[in-house]
Amino acid sequence: MQKILVGLFDQRMDPTVIYCDNHSCIKLSENPVFHDRSKHIDIQYHHLRDCVARRIMFLQYILTEEKDADILTKALSKCKFKFHRDRIRVADNPFLVEREC
User: Fold this and answer.
1) What is the SS3 string spanning the chain?
2) End-to-end CA distance of the chain
3) Predicted TM-score of the model (pTM)
């Protein structure tokens, strides 16, 4: 997406921030040294590491409870659903209230 926008508008963009709740993933993406324990990691990880090295994107730690993507990927309790819904600024639709038949 960033390449498309740079190609269209010919402007340098800020690095994309990816929020992650895994400290070890962040440390591995920043460390250019390959370890024996990281041999099993697939191509997507190496692409991410390359993007971090070229400063196209960077990983930032976020608490698991604050991951707003959970609203789209997990079944949440009503309380957590409302918490994440409010954080991403989605409002109730007044036209979709329950009606009597």
Assistant:
1) CHHHHHHHHCCCCCCEEEEECCHHHHHHHHCCCCCHHHCCCCHHHHHHHHHHHCCCEEEEECCHHHCCCHHHHCCCCHHHHHHHHHHCCCCCCHHHCCCCC
2) 47
3) 0.64
Dmax (CA) of the chain: 65
Residue pair 45/39 in contact by the 8 Å Cβ criterion: no
Lowest mean pLDDT among 20-24, 38-42, 73-77: 38-42
Cβ atoms of 30 and 55 within 8 Å: the answer is no
- Cα dihedral 26, 38, 43, 67 sign: negative
